[in-house]
Amino acid sequence: MANQVSESPAERTFQYQHRLPPLPVPSLEGSLAKYLDAVRPFATEEEDQVTAAILKRFGEGIGKDLHQKLLQRARTHRNWLEEWWLDAAYLELRYPSQLNVNFGGPAPYLEHCWPPTEGVQLQRTSVSMWHTLQYWDLLRTERLDPHKNGNVALDMDQFRMLFCTCKVPGVTKDTIINYFKTESEGPCPSHVVVMCKGRFFSFDAVCDGHILTPPELLRQLTNVKQCCEGEPAGDGVAALTSEERTRWAKAREYLIGIDPANKTLLETIQSSLFVVSLDDAKPYATAENYTPLTRETLIGDPTIRWGDKSYNSISFADGTFGSNCDHAPYDAMVLVTQCYYVDQQLKATDGKWKGSETVRPMPLPEELVFTVDDRVRSDIAHAKQQYFETTQDLQVVCYAFTSFGKAAIKQRKLHPDTFIQLALQLAYYRQHGRSGSCYETVMTRRFYHGRTETMRPCTLEAQNWCRIMLNPAASAEAKRKALLLAFNKHNKLMAEAQNGKGFDRHLLGLYLIAKEEGLPMPDLFTDPLYSKSGGGGNFVLSSSLVGYTTVLGAVAPMVHHGYGFFYRIRDDRIVASCSAWKSSPETDAETLFQNLVTSLHEMLHLATTAQL
């Protein structure tokens, strides 16, 4: 990721798409065996026997038929999961997606050239926008290096969804509209939307075929800010995007109904390259404590971000930055790659623009003014109320653990990601006195349009190791042996999931075929152990390694009594964001992080003294 720009025109960004293998369907027998193994940490002896019998019946009966139908679907779809996943995981959900689906994240620029400083918001925004527009140009001209794992090309399709993309609410199901085109495919929208104090402004980021320079962008941003200074705030139509999906869909239909011009304004926002949000908040985060900034990106002002947009770039009054993105069109690694590119460019130039100061004559930003009436104002007020009620309930912490990082872990010949996942299991067990069902995101991008698979880190081996670690009578040797077994199991499951041999997406496919065909729901999915172990979106720990770069993200928990846990790993530090619902008496994100710190120290000590 360090060298992202293709020097040679020989390799184009999307050139390997047609060569990628189709997403495989794992064997039914293999998936059921893995599933049984995965639910065992949560089962009593009796539950284990009941579930084993259910799986036997399923594998010999209805499961066999459903599996055959899935194989049939895979013959006509290069990715049998793609449409299903988009619908089931995102577009059919009815709860508000801005907090429950979107991911936020702090930009890392404050760690080097851009520490929190007042009075530089617009100047810094113009430079950061310019680098982002350069990245858009790399995609447009296919000069961004295609990603590879060794020599294996990875799917790049999700990168088409970063710019000019938006989700549109529907009464029963949302849709995604994507206006992006590469140069060879044709023209692509080049305007950006700037949101400030509940108002919308738009301007073209390209003039006479050239991207606007930072001084030119600064002129446009200054104009927007001047228009809003000392004026009453706008109607805050954007708050509607934070509403329950069906309510938002109906409010949108009404908005278009009262004035057809509103439809054009909505389309201008939807098709824009991205949204720039000028936020008056001053989070004042530090490299050690990202909490205030991370919190603002997740639960900040709903009137200055478009919750359905694939990319809201948020610029704060203290000169720091963050983002909030709809998760439906792409996974976090797309934004991580883009943000890391900007971070590296800023670092290389010390955050300064060293080019021409000339500002070409060009049209000033145009304000997008919606026609609203009392009903729309009432809809906006309702949306804001439910948003603030929910956001006030979300606890977010984000800290850097600086005692050690990737270098010390690898020195002990251990996988850094597995190290963190097992530390998380131990932290949860220490805090709650039991194992926590856990979802870890695994990329399946070696397959055509591959997105993710679930890896379940709470294995029997991990559970056994946690119990031994918390047993004062256990010897260091017993702890070491149990740790190695847990490590090996985790690494094995991770490799299988990356290679299309996970089981969660397979089971989802079988479930959706039964549902589509109106068949009675198989016992496997109604068995209490299915949801108790995390199935059906019930994971207590929703976790993801955001990568080995400077970029981090954050999400809300998957369930009310759960945690959202994102982390990044650097040579000398581990930075983690942890969220929980305050109204859950069981959970506390701050305590979980402190328990994680304890676990990390204990594990490194164990690995050092035992010379693993």
Description:
Strands 1-12-11-10-6-7-13 form a 7-stranded mixed beta sheet, with helices on both faces. α6 crosses α7 (214-228) and α14 crosses α15. The longest helix has 23 residues, at 476-498. The mean pLDDT is 97. The protein has helices at 28-39, 45-60, 62-76, 82-91, 97-100, 121-140, 214-228, 245-258, 261-271, 291-299, 332-349, 374-391, 406-411, 416-432, 460-469, 476-498, 504-516, 523-526, 528-532, 589-609, and strands at 103-106, 148-149, 152-153, 165-168, 175-178, 191-196, 199-204, 206-207, 210-211, 275-279, 312-316, 321-325, 366-368, 394-401, 438-443, 452-455, 541-547, 563-569, 574-581. β8 (206-207) and β9 form a beta hairpin. The chain contains 20 helices and 19 strands. Helix content is 43%, strand content 15%. With 612 residues, it is an alpha+beta fold. The radius of gyration is 25 Å and the shape is globular. One of its GO terms (cellular component) is peroxisome. It holds the Pfam family Carn_acyltransf. Residues 23-596 form the Choline/carnitine acyltransferase domain. One of its GO terms (molecular function) is carnitine O-octanoyltransferase activity. Pathway: Lipid metabolism; fatty acid beta-oxidation.
Which bin fits the share of residues in helices?
Answer: 40-55%
Looking at the structure, what is the overall shape? globular
Number of distinct helices? 20
Class from secondary-structure proportions: alpha+beta
- Which stretches are low in confidence, meaning pLDDT under 50 for 5 or more residues running? none
Give the strand tally.
Answer: 19
Average of the residue pLDDT scores: 97
